[in-house]
Design brief:
By secondary structure, the protein is mainly α. The chain has a single domain (68-419), classed as Na+/H+ antiporter like fold. Helices cover 77% and strands 1% of the residues. It contains 18 helices and two strands. It has helices at 3-25, 29-50, 52-63, 67-84, 89-94, 96-122, 136-146, 151-158, 165-195, 200-232, 237-258, 262-272, 292-315, 317-322, 328-354, 364-370, 376-383, 392-419; strands spanning 280-282, 285-287. Strands 1-2 form a two-stranded antiparallel sheet. A hairpin with a 2-residue loop joins strand 1 and strand 2 (285-287). The longest helix is centred in the middle third of the chain and has 33 residues, at 200-232. The chain is globular, with a radius of gyration of 21 Å.
């Protein structure tokens, strides 16, 4: 199917589902769209039992989306940039140590705890999964792809929670940076899987290249971009939109060529062009880095891509559940418990340590834990796993999808009550 036809279908579904959610379900946009997309997917699967050719046609259509490329290379840079220009950068910089420690320790801890736990589970005879041949590195790959939270889903929920400014910034900043760290860990482990080079030196160099390269590139392009939009002086907002679009793509392309972390790059660049940066004092107040029109444009793009993303996540259930095995259900429940508990401990430890030097609101660890929604990034990384994993890839895809469903539907729907 032509890209124009695919885009038309996605935008039409996003529009119709958004109207149904607004008028009938009245749920948060992220959750409402996800539920409607899942209902559509199960309807297709039900019809497919009666008419297999229909299911085959729809499955081929979904596979033509190339979800992994579409999300990681196209949608994610724009979504993360839109999130980065909206956070309170002043609060973020004041609390940067807290945010970086939460993001880095939390993801590393969760990766190894979940990976080790899954490896232990699949080796147990009572589950009957020890024949699929998942190695320890394969399980660590699953731990790495499920550890980072989805900043798009998290930011959408946090904005409606009436949290204090500092807690909201900590949650938003942690979700933005743990994405970049999670992707770097995943790519490092993937390189170990493909090359067999598990030396500390090799892994350390690759990790440093991804992190340092991504941050440095984002800072350089962000600094130059800030100088450029200040030179325009908000007089030509259409030009500022064009500049920001081109800079996001530029960071992504350069990162891909030099094996830098494009995720960290666009986040750092977004902080330079943040709406809360005061670039010049005027009589009427403080001038933002770019004109208000530009931030409204990025908000619109963020909402549109967000709607399309969660419809795609819902539709991806069709090919995943075609390879469904009933023995996966028990391990999926155990995996959800493992993911949530490891996230909780990984957040609680740095908060407990930092509480000797900083003040935290009561139950901050619980809010950050339960607000750790997973989304499209985890599914895209799971789809990016090499086929040499074999039957284990189907299990990882199923577990990833079940964790994503649980965090968005169960945690997302109950987060507001927990905050209260």
């Amino acid at each position: 199917m032509h890209v124009l036809e695919l885009t038309t279908i996605l935008l039409l579904l996003a529009s119709v589902f958004s109207i149904i959610n607004l008028r009938l379900l009245k749920l948060p946009q992220t959750i409402g769209l996800m539920i409607l997309a899942i209902v559509l997917s199960f309807s297709v699967l039900t019809i497919g039992v009666i008419s297999p050719p229909f299911l085959e046609t729809v499955s081929n259509l979904i596979e033509s989306f190339d979800f992994q490329v579409l999300l990681i290379d196209v949608m994610l840079p724009f979504l993360l940039f839109a999130g980065a220009i909206s956070v309170d950068v002043h609060e973020l910089l004041k609390d940067k140590v807290t945010i970086l420690l939460l993001a880095s320790f939390g993801v590393l801890f969760s990766t190894f705890v979940v990976g080790s736990g899954i490896y232990w589970l699949v080796e147990q005879p009572f589950l009957g999964l020890n024949s699929i041949g998942l190695s320890y590195v394969d399980c660590l790959l699953f731990g790495a792809l499920i550890a980072p939270t989805d900043p798009i889903a998290v930011l959408a929920m946090v904005k409606k929670m009436n949290l204090s400014r500092i807690t909201e910034t900590r949650i938003a900043g942690e979700s933005l940076f743990n994405d970049g760290i999670g992707v770097v860990i995943f790519l490092t482990l993937l390189n170990v899987k493909l090359t067999g080079n598990a030396s500390v030196e090799g892994v350390g160099l690759l990790f440093a290249q991804e992190v340092i390269g991504g941050v440095a590139l984002g800072a350089l392009i962000g600094f130059l971009g800030l100088k450029l939009v200040k030179y325009i002086e908000n007089e030509h907002v259409e030009l500022e939109v064009l500049i920001t679009l081109s800079l996001v793509l530029l960071v992504s392309v350069i990162s891909h060529q030099f094996h830098f972390s494009g995720v960290l790059g666009v986040v750092v660049m977004g902080l330079f062009l943040n709406r809360n940066i005061d670039t010049d004092k005027k009589e009427e107040g403080l001038q933002k880095a770019m004109g208000e029109y530009v931030y409204k444009f990025w908000h619109l793009l963020d909402e549109t891509l967000n709607a399309i993303l969660f419809i795609l996540i819902g539709l991806e259930i069709i090919p995943i559940f075609q390879n469904f095995d009933t023995t996966y259900l028990l391990i999926s429940i155990l995996t959800i418990l493992l993911v949530v508990c490891s996230r909780g401990v990984g957040v609680w430890i740095p908060i407990k340590f930092l509480s000797f030097f900083k003040t935290f609101e009561k139950r901050t660890a619980l809010i950050i834990t339960w607000g750790g929604l997973r989304g499209g990034l985890s599914i895209a990384l799971a789809l990016n796993l090499p086929n040499q994993i074999g039957q284990g890839k189907d299990l990882i895809l199923f577990l990833t999808y079940m964790v994503v469903l649980f965090t968005i539907l169960v945690q997302g729907l109950t987060l507001k009550k927990i905050v209260k």
